[in-house]
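fold-stage: in
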Amino acid sequence: MRRKLTFSCINRVKANLKLIDNFKSKKRYYEKLASLDQTFSVFKNPSDTEEFQDCCKSAVIYLRNNTRGNNLVYEENINCGFCKNMLIDKPIGITINLALTIFIILYSWISSGQITAISHKNWFSICINLCFVIFWIFGINKKMFEESAKRYAYTLITAIDSLKAPESED
């Protein structure tokens, strides 16, 4: 699942590159990419060919490698990775919180002798754990990850403007 979510980030960048609303921005990004590396000359004439798709994949890798110093890209990458990890760890989080809730209930019941004699502190702890279970179930979802991947992709694409063309070796 981790690999599938990583490809989702890359696909999101490719999709955003192709679906930028502003035609002038899209054209500027394509021209900038074409000027950065000779292998990106395909961006001068965008199409739906397999060669163009492969060039998009290559451009994503190029952007990820050459925008490492950009703090905004770095932060969005961290956010995207955090959301991905939360989504992957969702079953573990639910299991741990449910196990702790059951443990607190059983411990409180055994130590007090009856369920109605459980202390307020323990009831508070049970409620907090149940809130975390609800958070894991409803708060951590694929939509959350997709939104963070979309923000990362957009930030990565807009970082194209900050890249400088390599010096020519003439």
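fold-stage: in (second)
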Amino acid sequence: MGGPGEDSGRGIVPLDESLRHGRPVQRRDRWGDQWVRLGMPMGESIGVVRGTERSMAGWVGNIEEATLANSTFRTALFTGSQVQLTVMRIASGEEIGMEMHDDRDQFIRLEQGRARVTFGPSRDEVAETHDVEDDWAVIIPAGTWHNVINTGEDDLKLYSLYSPPEHPDSTVHQTKADADAAHAAEDG
């Protein structure tokens, strides 16, 4: 297999400097020697996909860039045994919908936009309302009903960490309708 800067027939893609990754390195893992960029997607040749890189050991990437570049309602960038990283785009006036995770905590960070975050003891009762914007973070403890509503004129862009994971590995929901349909199918 070719080394750094050599085209091994797999189409080496120049690295976007804004991702701040180093040069390709040789890594030995259970599949043998291969040239990789730190944080590249599993099973892929040397290259970068808009800051959403996944390595064999975890995920390494520019989370702000990955979040801002996301055009889907929800995409799982990484799913481990105890944590999951997702990025979301919520259109103006759209919301995640009142939900509760019995057995998992959630961390949300807004990269772009304005939102109203609500917390409550039940689906029908809102006990707290918080208006948040770019650079704000929210922690939602397990068992807390919550919603995130885009109150801005532009898309709301955020990333979320679930512990343990909430969605199947490699989940991509193009729209909220797709997410709702997937949840309905899971619930049977």
